[in-house]
Fold these 2 entries.
Entry 1:
Amino acid sequence: MAQINTAVHRLVGVLLVLAALLPGGAAVAFADPPVSVWVEDTAGVLDRNKLVPALEGIDFYAPTRVAVYTYNGSAEDNLNEEVLRYARSEHPEWISADGQKWADGLFIFALDPVGRHVGTYMGEDRKVSLEQRNDIQDAAKDLLRDAQWTDGTIAGVRRAAGLINQPWYRSAAFLVTAWVTAGTAALGAAAWLIVRAVTRSSSRKEIERGDQSYANVSMDLEVTELNAGTIPESSRYGGHVLEKHRTFLNRYNTASQLSNRVHALSSRDLGRRRHLKLAREYADAASELDALDDVIADTNALLNKAGTWPTAWDRQLAPFRKDLAGLEQLLTKRHGQGDSATAAALRSFRDQSLREIERWTAELAEEKISPEKALDRLYDARSRLAVLLENHAQTVIGGFAKNEREAQLMRKEMEAAQDGLNHKRRRSYEPSILGTVYPSYHFFSVATFNSGLNTGVSSVSSARGGGGSTTGYGSSGGSFSGSGSSSSF
């Protein structure tokens, strides 16, 4: 740690020297509020009382006229062409005298809330690069995607003010080059030490995680064998759990070997990536064994109606109850299509299932149904929920996707989530009897649905925003070549 502190102190010293060497003009702040602000809100989505004062309070590097234009178009429209058409018709002063460029000193922020396009246009003396125009549009997109039209417009204009006529010494390229050049040596040394320290800390945490699970398994090893010995093999569920148990001792021996290997590592060894991988392998192996011995105990208690069977049964119900409890939040979230027919089917199923759970439990206690029958009913209910969620997924995809390409992208993300792979590309394991008998991806859970939906919406939104800027002005633009572009959000 002392080495890290020394490297960091050196880095700070270098950067302070660099800061002292920057041109004195770097202290100059933005100086010029807009010369004028036009708001042509033909879409009727902006709050003028909030927007105009906010824009008038933004300082530019040079006197700039700001125009905001909104209109309700469609996804297929060319926003550039529409802005030029409107300017020619209603605001010829926005266009240069020769009709080929935008007027000097002008910045236009344009928005189509229906077609979901945002555009930026400027005079030649206020021109920025295409990358910077994208930066201005991106600054507004998160707000625009949430239909915060006024705040999104303010964010876009504010970002434009920071880029238009930006002094060279404030440019990202200059600052990055200067800081990187000055700090590379110090950063390299510090980064190497920091990575080692972080890796070492992560390895120790994984070993601690493994040790806790390994200790639980070792302590209960004899009890686990006794529980397995009384599980009825004739039971379909018991038979599957016993199949898992047959490899239990071999897997325990493997975990023991991994334990010996990670505990033989020195502190220096723990800072290496390959040893972090080994520590994680040990922790995962021990954790899965710890979960499996609990499932073996629950299987024995439930199938034999031992004294602890109610607790074991509650643990089997827990994943299903969690899904039912999470449905409303899923349906009321943005893009959740909570007012659809498939959402109504899910709510009806939830209400019915909550009543059914109580009935199954009572009948199980009164021995009107066997534990095996109770598990069958739980399996059927969870399978039914999976079908309803799959139906609702199609509703959500249909509501958000604008075309088949976007729909396919969303389906791909939903299917990937349902496949049951975690962020390390490993199958997740549900520590229950049903989770042991059936693969994790057999049941489409609410958590999985949420994960797939969030990833799908993010992927489609990213594709829309990063699908390439449009710079042309369409067939009606003629020879017009003013600086501007638009993109989707």
Entry 2:
Amino acid sequence: MIALSLAEIAEVVGGQTYDIPDPSVRVTGPVVRDSREAGPGSLFVAFVGERVDGHDFARQVVEAGAAAVLASRPVGVPAIVVEDVQTALGALARHVVQKLGTTLVALTGSAGKTSTKDLIAQVLQRKAPTVWTPGSLNNEIGLPLTALGATEETKFLVLEMGARGVGHIRYLADLTPPKIGLVLNVGSAHIGEFGGRDQIARAKGELVEVLPEEGAAILNADDPLVRAMASRTKAKVILFGESGEADVRAENVRLTDSGQPAFRLQTPSGASDVTMRLYGEHHVSNALAAAAVAHELGMSAEEIATALSEAGSLSRWRMEVTERPDGVTVVNDAYNANPESMRAALRALAAMGNGRRTWAVLGKMAELGDEALAEHDAVGRLAVRLNVSKLVAVGGREASWLQLGAYNEGSWGEESVHVSDAQAAVDLLRSELRPGDVVLVKASRSVGLESVAQALLDSGVEGEVAAR
């Protein structure tokens, strides 16, 4: 974070200082909420969680060098005490962002946010120092913590914004007002919480509503609900996609033999060829979104194409592809799942197979509400239509719907199997995998199927995998 004195921070957040001998002492290190990350000059934010109270670690972080604690009560060590720690953290982030004047890029969407954010960051980093959201820390706590990581050298700040209801994006955008707002898509993620796609579109579109007139709204031309958001902004509108009407578009899209997308990138300033290191055709849309942001910020088509072709995955468990010594390829996409990302992952698996046996180890997609049965059934059926060699459905009711969809789609469905938990899936795979097979592992985060992928990669290591 930019250096601020404890007195300045107290004024910004409306707090009172306690046990601070010298209010002119400055915070010169990062703002952290994990006591293990506290170090010299840092500011520790004490949240009260369901299991852990951050205030209990106050003395420990100060002994580790933290300048002070942002707390909701006095803790016996230097502290700035506020009524609500989350509100204070947001106020501090807003102050720092406004003081820096950094170009802020915000993005949202039902699927692909983290992968696209990682692509944008890797492209812009080539132009100037860039700070971006680590992993998926895109909520009311993760977003301000990321913003506070910016310094005087930071030219671009790329923030992923998540939402579970109407008003969430507007709240986040008020903390860190963006100049460029990107909406990827409107899908089925969290549809059970939102109550329908129209409500999801309403929530995601809050991002373009807050953009300034001199800003830019970057919208997916291939998604009608996103494209319609053009009427909700006073900012310049830039369309991306495969549509001929898109300002930044892909032509001659294809997959390499290994399942990696390649295409001709067309921008208003020129064209250049891209061959990505990531896997799956769905990354074409993500790449075009990143290209549109980079074009708006002055990068040439050639610069963008080179950066996209060299970009990798920065976040764990998102189409992580690892080949074992025996030739079995494990695709760990277990961080999260919704119907759109599940379909994209299955299509990537089919492309990667290229004559090899393919396995889809799938678990439930959470928060689908009344759509849950139909969506799980549809994914099982798609696995059959894509000629995936074998489906392993892991878990309870939702997994049974996956397996039933595959079985009802046709005779291949007899190759599908329903197992109770992660350990059962590992036992089955260890007994039946052959050299050269490709295994996709994917489910919502709560299922914890990354344990299956890890067990498969721990070649020759026996032992229990925690059942989820």
